[in-house]
Structure to design on (157 residues):
């Protein structure tokens, strides 16, 4: 194997090792040591397999590091998000780019499932990976149980 440069999300971290996931390919790399990483950290880095067996990896260069803040907001989705969901069927996802960087994802869900859907989004590793791909540092989940609308805002800061 050869070294790999990309964007990685830390999915698991202990004092002596860590697990990172490539946000583009979803390939998992177990690191033989932990250079101070925490779950939800995002690394722009180069990793290389450790000899002789090449089953674990090491971080050889870090171009950038940030963490993703997950926020379970008590705010309702914006009027714009509610308008996007107005004509959607239950189960539909509407994606819209934000001005500048980031995206807003709006889901139409059954009213009784809004809280569970919000919890699922906040617990899903793919939420962090998507935030990393979008160069976001904050993911804000808003919901309206009365209207069956869930919005996920991927924000640059």
């Amino acid at each position: 194997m050869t070294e790999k440069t990309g964007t990685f999300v830390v999915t698991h971290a202990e004092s002596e090792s860590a697990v990172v996931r490539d946000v583009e390919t979803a390939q998992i790399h177990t690191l033989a040591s932990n250079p101070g990483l925490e779950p939800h950290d995002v690394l722009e880095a180069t990793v290389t397999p450790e000899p002789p067996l090449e089953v674990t990896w090491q971080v050889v260069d870090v171009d950038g590091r940030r963490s993703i803040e997950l926020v379970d907001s008590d705010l309702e989705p914006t009027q714009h998000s509610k308008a996007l969901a107005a004509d959607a069927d239950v189960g539909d996802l509407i994606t819209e780019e934000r001005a500048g960087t980031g995206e807003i994802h709006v889901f139409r869900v059954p009213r009784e499932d809004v809280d569970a859907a919000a919890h699922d989004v906040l617990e899903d590793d793919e939420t962090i990976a998507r935030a990393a791909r979008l160069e976001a540092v904050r993911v804000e989940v808003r919901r309206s149980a009365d209207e069956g609308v869930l919005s996920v805002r991927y924000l640059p800061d």
